[in-house]
Specification:
By secondary structure, the protein is mainly α. It contains 13 helices and no strands. Helix 8 runs parallel beside helix 10. The chain is elongated, with a radius of gyration of 32 Å.
C-alpha cells in the first residue's frame, strides 16, 4: 500500500472543504432563486455598513422607490440598533411608512423612537408623524371616530411638548379637523334619536357638542337642534334659551333663522334664562 504523506493529506482535506463550501453556496443560491419567500437582495445587507445602507435608502426614497427605501432603513434598524445611524434610520422608517400609508407601521416605529429617544433633535418631527398617521385613518362621521381621538392626543403632544417647533401650526389644524369629526359624530347620533322622537337621548348628544366642542363647525346646528328638541318636549324656557344663545353668537345663521321661525310658530320668542346650562355655555362661546 502506498503511504500518503501528511502534506498531501492536508491538501486533500482543504480541497474537500472548499468543494463542500462551494456546493453549499450553490445550493443556497438555487434555493433563493426557487423560493419566492426568500429575498436574495437581503443577503447582501449584512455586508453593507450602516452609513452605506442609509445613503442607499435616501437615494431610493428620492427616486420614488419607497419600498426599497423602507427595506434599507429596516435593515439598519435591525442590524445597528441604538446607534446614531439606527436612530436616524428609525426616523426615516417612520416617515416612509407614513408616505406609503402603512399607518400602523408608522405609529409603531414612531412610538418606539419616542420611547428610546424622547429628547432627541427629531422628537418633535416623529411625534408629528405619529399624529399624521392617525389623522390619515380618520373616516366619515358615520363610522368609528377612534382615530380622530388619537389624532387629538398625538397632535396635542406636538403643541404642548414642542411649542416652538415648525409642526405646531399643522398640528393645530389637524386637531381642529379631528374635533369637528368627533362633534360631527355626536350630531349624527343626536339626529338619529331626534328623528325617532327620543328627545332626551338626542339632547344628551347635542349637549356634548355645545359643552365639549363649542369651537367646531357643528355648534350652530347643535343649538338649533336643542331648540327643536326642547320645543318638541314642551320645555319652552330651554328652547327659548337655546335659540337666544344661538342668536347672540350667530345672528346671521340660517340655523338661527329656522329656530326663530319655529318658536314664532308657537307664539314664542328667543329669550335667555341665565340659570340654564345653555346660557352658561353661551357665555363661554362669547368668551365671557
Amino acid at each position: 500500500m502506498k503511504h500518503v504523506g501528511s502534506g498531501a493529506m492536508k491538501k486533500t482535506v482543504r480541497v474537500a472543504l472548499v468543494s463542500m463550501l462551494l456546493a453549499g453556496a450553490a445550493t443556497l443560491v438555487t434555493a433563493c432563486q426557487s423560493d419566492p419567500d426568500i429575498d436574495i437582495t437581503k443577503l447582501g445587507f449584512e455586508s453593507e455598513s450602516a452609513e452605506t445602507l442609509y445613503k442607499q435608502g435616501l437615494a431610493n426614497m428620492n427616486s420614488g422607490n419607497m419600498t426599497e427605501a423602507a427595506r434599507k432603513f429596516e435593515a439598519i434598524d435591525k442590524q445597528h440598533p441604538f446607534t446614531e445611524w439606527g436612530r436616524k434610520a428609525l426616523v426615516m422608517q417612520t416617515f416612509v411608512s407614513t408616505r406609503m400609508n402603512r399607518n400602523e407601521q408608522a405609529i409603531a416605529a414612531g412610538n418606539r423612537y419616542l420611547k428610546q429617544y424622547p429628547r432627541s433633535e427629531d422628537s418633535a418631527y416623529v411625534q408629528y408623524l405619529v399624529g399624521l398617521a392617525y389623522s390619515k385613518q380618520i373616516v366619515d362621521v358615520t363610522q368609528d371616530q377612534r382615530a380622530a381621538a388619537r389624532t387629538i392626543d398625538a397632535m396635542s403632544k406636538v403643541v404642548n411638548d414642542y411649542p416652538d417647533s415648525e409642526y405646531v401650526s399643522d398640528a393645530q389644524a389637524k386637531i381642529r379637523f379631528a374635533r369637528d369629526q368627533l362633534a360631527g359624530k355626536e350630531m349624527q347620533v343626536g339626529r338619529y334619536y331626534l328623528e325617532r322622537k327620543e328627545y332626551l337621548a338626542a339632547i344628551k348628544r347635542f349637549r356634548v357638542v355645545v359643552e365639549t366642542y363649542p369651537n367646531t363647525n357643528q355648534i350652530e346646528e347643535a343649538l338649533a337642534r336643542l331648540t327643536e328638541s326642547y320645543y318638541a318636549m314642551g320645555l319652552a324656557d330651554e328652547a327659548q334659551t337655546a335659540a337666544a344663545v344661538l342668536g347672540n353668537n350667530y345672528p346671521d345663521s340660517q340655523w338661527y333663522a329656522d329656530s326663530f321661525k319655529l318658536l314664532q310658530s308657537g307664539g314664542l320668542q328667543p329669550r335667555e334664562n341665565k340659570g340654564s346650562w345653555i346660557s352658561k355655555a353661551g357665555l363661554k362661546l362669547l368668551g365671557v
